Amino acid sequence: MLALLVLYYFLFNPDLDPSTVQSEGTDSTLVSPSIIEEADVQTEVIPTIAVDTAEVDSVQVAAMQLLQRDKFGAFAGAADGEAKEVVLENELLRVVLNTKGGLPTSAILIDGYQTFWDSVDIHLWDENLSEMNLQWYSTDGKEINSKDLFFTSSQVNAKASESQAASVTFSIPTDNPAKKFELSYRLAIDSYQLETTLNIVNFDGTMNTSEGKTVLSWNAAGNHNEKGISSERQRSSVFFREMNEDRDYLSESREDDESPETTLNWVAFKQNFFSAAIISDTGFGKGSYLKSYPPVDEDLDTLHTMFYEARLPLNITSGTATEKFRFFFGPNEYDRLVSTEVEQIDRIIDYGWGIFGWVNRHIVRPMFIFFSGFISNYGLVILIITLIIKAVLFPITWKNYLSSAKMRVLKPEIDEINKKFEGKEAMEKQQAVMGLYRETGVNPMAGCLPMLLQMPILYAMFRFFPASIELRQKTFLWADDLGGYDSILDLGFNIPLYGMHVSGFTLLMAVSTFFYTRMSSSQMPDTNQPGMPNMKVIMNFFPLMMLFIFNSLASGLSFYYFAANVISIGQMYFIKNVIIDEDKIHAKLQDNKKKPKKKSGFQQRLADMQKMQQDKAKGGKKSK
Length: 624
Known about the structure:
Mean pLDDT is 80; it is low at 12-46. The protein starts with a helix and ends with a helix. The protein is elongated. It contains 15 helices and 24 strands. The chain has three domains: 2-76, no CATH class; 82-350, Beta-galactosidase, Chain A, domain 5 (Distorted Sandwich); 363-594, no CATH class. A hairpin with a 6-residue loop joins β5 and β6. The chain is an alpha+beta fold. The strands form five sheets. A nine-stranded antiparallel β-sheet has the order 9-11-12-13-22-19-18-15-16, with no helix packed on it.
């Protein structure tokens, strides 16, 4: 610009000699002002140039227009403008868009959801550290970004009503009225979805429409909203689904990235109970890139959970095209996500994989919603669910206890066999023990099946409570948030792997687990072998481990396990003292010895295998 300015002066003022021009004091502006020396030194006036302001401005404008035309081509008219906010709002959500860039800059939940630590409306990302941008290329290879352009909007603000959705259309001024580049938005009255349409018209020959050349990029910094930022980070990541595939996600709480090989159906920036997602029913183009990572210094940055990145190619394949997609800015509520009718987007809520997720979605959650519909105290709801689950599992618990009782009454006979075959072949001793089991009709594996049947429920509950937004900021006894940890004592210092507080429900759960394991182990026969770890010691050490594992997890989860332990202790006491009579069990096992026995197929195969191994061992001795 300076070179153009000097060139202009010498082309249109050839006789102008800067060394001889004096300040004329007329309607001109001094380009180089005089410098007056102070004190008693004789003043020397440095020559100046008098230039017409209008001429200078016109040259600058012309030079700027040339640069903008070279950089933005048909969009050069949108390079200058004023950034203005445009707000679309309904009863649930406020979305802020900006005329600079034409895309959403923030999304705020206004229907009762607030941050735990400062009680303000939920902002799904930090507006100052986040950016959404639409990128494309001209046919001569120049990169153009919507973030550098100023759109015009059809209106300033809009609020949805029962009769009409809130809507706005952003347009880029072009060099030809026949060319259109528009972004239209629509927000319905009772929706967390922002419907978006990109419409371009008559850009053949000026816009590169090759595959992957038009890309929507989105970088966002997730805000800290919940009690306990460390556990919040552990449930924050990028979730996504490739077309015709199952839901997938990047590693939670640590840096991870992925470049999916096929087209994406949707991408969600998930942070515990809330998500910002973008959805394409027909699928985005190939060549997407996804990334998530925690703050560089997680101890110092207590404002942000995770940082997210997504690059999503759009299916713009000609100079006249329409691309439709939608944003979901809202809570991870199961019914809300299902109502979007987007396949597997409800699995943003991580209820667990396989059978565990199925149990939570189709058994535990419906039961939870049913009782919470008429019971406002969520602690009581958890207690009722616990009672129902333990009642359903009671027959399994009884079968497990019965199997343990049979093994216990046979222990004296097993001890005799061990003494009889002490110092002899282990195979012979094993055959004798298996013979005793066959004679008495005892299956040593009978206790394993009931335990396996209980595992899906136990693990499902471990996933259900921390993922349920219904428990968020619900109080019970001393817990001020069943969706976060409870604290009965703030330590004021950090214990590695434990934290800076003492969780009351976790403490109760660990104590009840200790007594439950002591009762369980006392009913089990001593099956420890020389050189093997003592299982009773390990079981007694387990409650201490739980103090560290559960201290920062959802208090609703700890309360559930505490209630389940207390009920289990009561069931075990009832079974032992009311239902089961070990003397009768022993008498029945002795009667079984008198009855003729036929080996089952499994027992016969096991006996054949043992005999084969025994014969092989004898053959080896003879060869020696």
